Structure prediction request, 1200 residues.
Amino acid sequence: MFGLNQKDTRLFLIVAAMTLLAPFILNPFPEGTAMAQMFNAGYPDLMQRFVIFGILVIGFNILFGLTGYLSFGHAAFLGVGSYAAVWMFKLVGMNVVPAILLSMVVAGLFALLIGYVSLRRSGIYFSILTLAFAQMSYNLAYSVLGNPASNFNLTNGETGLQLLLDDPRVLGESVTADGSIPVTNFFGIAMRDSFNLEIGGWLFTFNAGYYLAGIIMLISFYISIRIFRSPFGMMLRAVKSNQQRMNYTGLSSRPYTLAAFVISGIYAGLAGGLLSSMDPLAGAERMHWTASGEIVIMAILGGVGTLIGPILGAGFNEYFKNILSKINDEVLHQWLSFMPDGLENAFVGVLHFFVGKGWHLSLGLLFMMVIIFLPGGLVEGGQRLARLFRRRRPSDDDSQKSAQSTPAE
Amino acid sequence: MSKSNFTRRGLLKTSGIAGAGLALPTIFTASSAAAFTNEPTGSTVTLGFNVPQSGPYADEGADELRAYKLAVEHLNGGGDGGMMNTFSSKVLQGNGVLGKKVEFVTGDTQTKSDAARASAKSMIEKDGAVMITGGSSSGVAIAVQGLCQEAGVIFMAGLTHSNDTTGKDKKANGFRHFFNGYMSAAALAPVLESMYGNDRKAYHLTADYTWGWTQEESIAAATEAMGWETVEKVRTPLAATDFSSYIGPVMNSGADVLVLNHYGGNMVNSLTNAVQFGLRDKQVNGKNFEIVVPLYSRLMAKGAGENVKGILGSTNWHWSLTDEGSKTFVKSFGEKYGFPPSQAAHTCYVQTLLYADAVERAGSFNPCAVAEALEGYEFDGLGNGPTLYRAEDHQCFKDVLVVRGKENPTSEFDLLEVVEVTPRAQVEYAPDHPMFAGGSLGSCNPGA
Amino acid sequence: MDAILLQILNGLDKGSAYALIALGLTLIFGTLGVVNFAHGALFMIGAFCAVTLQRILTLSTITIDETQKDFLGNPLKVKTPYVESWFGPETGAAIIDWSVPLAILFAIPVMLLIGYVMERGLIKHFYKRPHADQILVTFGLAIVLQEIIKAFYGANPIPTGAPAAFRGSFDFGSMFGFDPNTIIYPYWRMVYFAFAAVIIGGVFAFLRYTTFGMVVRAGMADRETVELLGINIDRRFTIMFGVAAAVAGLAGVMYAPINSPNYHMGMDFLVLSFVVVVVGGMGSLPGAVLAGFLLGILEAFASMNEIKAIFPGIDQIIIYLVAIIIILTRPRGLMGRPGVMEE
Prediction:
């Protein structure tokens, strides 16, 4: 189907089903229960983040997973894309389509520039070059380029670039009839519109912005599968396995790596444009080196070089970040209230360090665990589980081999 | 734990009730039946406390959270009632707000605009918070204020000192109790004049972001008006940790006062470095060299240790104030947690009470009704003397404290002494003052 | 002229912190081939060794003073450190005053132990893994270490003063015939610079003139041959990891009086020190030291008002700009070897 082989078609259909049914999958607990309060993730903001960061990491994986070039400054493209989209909302109008297109173009050009320079070096020298470019962008966006008092306020500094009532918006209205800033929309469908479905005690939210981002993610995912399977993807893999030998055969690897770099930059710009479309404020922090590090972490968590890995990694990271940081001592007491008081307090005392304000600690430990025990990320975890089940049925030795490669490349 | 309302039994009971009648998270929903975003329909109302729990301001955020928990306890009738007893308005009865028990959810701003908006969104969309409050930086306050305006909930700012929060970035749904850069300057200038004279040359080191710029502008304008000369304004990167290369040249410039427009970790480091360079032992132009830190925070002053001794600055509130409101608040906070509250804790506690009071007076949680009740509201008994929530820009006007690092502290909390309580009249300004011009409140948005 | 001299002093001082951290990083990379993103965290732990020793020395007995009141109006609890009651107020106060230099003695065993445990417990399993995995696992470890410190010490900076004898500053200007007060420099920062010079010299001398160092250098050049000679190179490399951790830790101890330690100071230094290492050339010890001082001095110059007037914001980006230029003009940094970390 769509030029994909059978395995890829199956994978694509699974991802498509998961994306479209996410409002159900992410809200497994009835509304109002303690479990729902903490573990349900089916609200628009988080669902949007899942797919948008999915796009970002899918793009990053095209560069890192295929060519092995580790960019430590990828967040810069996300940031540039976000700024471009917000400027579009400020100057032109609130339709998200031109904003997203512009953010892809701007991020692509930015990636072309940085990639052209950085790809002159390889290995850690390449990583440090991309890191240096990204940190320069961040520092400038935070201060010099963001001073409201100057005539050159491109980023609005610390606060982030935001929409104002007196923005021109030449193709739309500056102010709505009731005196507010108009909302971002896709040809009239507001990104924040939601439809709530109540079934029994369950509540499912279908958000317009989420479905737009979700469909764009599916398109991006499809393109990424095609790239992985194309001769171009094969070239990129050749770069990873032995660039020198490739050069000796008379092929120049630079155009290929540069193309991969620009493509992944465009993906990041697309993600940035979508972030701004869902929430029209672009902050400089999303360009900081720790944000770039998070992209790498998401990719490794999921499984580098695999098709599904980036989506899993992004979802896993965003989910735990959001959930862990919201659990506080009161919630812990509520959960553990079945225990005797002394034991309860002891447990809360220990867990206290890992949730709420300590969420960084749990996330750090989780990353370490995954990297130590699952070098191939969650995809490898899934494969091991699958193999475990297969082993119980020792008859089909063949399918074990195919299971190894099914979710991967 | 045993005294508060958040024992496990209390929570069990309330979560059952909350489960029965929780408001649907229908914010951002065009086709909602509710009159406004997150209209509380059950017997409880949820407030969202959005404070930095990780990152460099985590300790300040923790103190804000303590104050919020205390305020919720008092609103629900627990504890000693705190400043509800001294508040000039008497509509709060200790039975929750409009008869609904107050509950809360927390979020982590990380002191980043993006993260703060995400956590606020999660509290609004998922937990049904009808009001968002907190924060410890101006960038975050402005970003979250914008979000609350779009979402149709009230935003009660926490610690935010930039002029822009109620200046060019003011919003109809946002309210600030904390003071601002202009007020700091207006309060400090006369004290600086009487202590250091009116013939001084000032050298500014300014953190290179929104808050730093507005404070530098305010302080420079106020000191120049009394005859000081501004020799140089130097911007320092936010990420800077070592300020030696910025402080070294100060002595070369002929300046005799150093103004540090820094906050948090920047302030601790730049002040420590300046004292290390021995600037305070020097004589320039025949006068003692002086250092000024316009915005003081006790929590941060602690980080600078002995270096704060004798250094002037301003603060919104301090626990050593002796009016009834402050004494009551220090007592109930101190007895619950074992140490005195910070200015961030104070402003957050007061903001929560003011919100609850406005809801009671308006008779509704509708943001537009609440905003109307807060606009132009005069009150007293919350620690800063008679205070006005000005309708034009949603900024509180009240007395401002000028403080100085104490020479002989008796405890680890006793770091600052109040030099002067600058009366409210002296720090007031017109709503269209040039430093605040450029934005407009817009109209209140009830969402839904 | 005086302004330039002043910034050279500042640059040397900044540079010595960069150089110390970069030296440790390079030692680890050169011996074990591991990229250690937790090195900044080791620097931070060193600074907290100073904080911890200060806390230990100021452990106090509490006496109630009825004449004074605390903030709630109750009688004030007065704290008297045990060391003051044991050694008498004056000697006790002097010991507390000297807690940072004393912390050096405290930090060396602690840091060696931490380094040893880190290498045996975690890093050892990552020798054969890709560099990206090494970076990520040590990055995760850095987060874990700093969050543990935050859980115990809070997020606020903790003031840790230098001994009273080293407070204040020295007037270089009047010594060399400039106007007084034009080139002043704090005593403790001069101590820091001298300390860094001693440590750097010590490490080089250790590698150069001891048999142990010779074997380690041989192992860095050709690990297999050294192993074939029947030398247990692994054990020596483990010890070098401990030494590198101790170097970072000592850099942190002595840094505590310059800036009050906080839990994220390691991350603040991490990226910069990495840039330093790469600019110096991966695996080159002299390169790391040279690049540390070079970038420190350039950073100090970039913060001069005269230069900022021409290029606004140059102080924000100078280090990265220089790094880009150097990597593009000298493919392997200042003194790097070909083939290292380029795959």
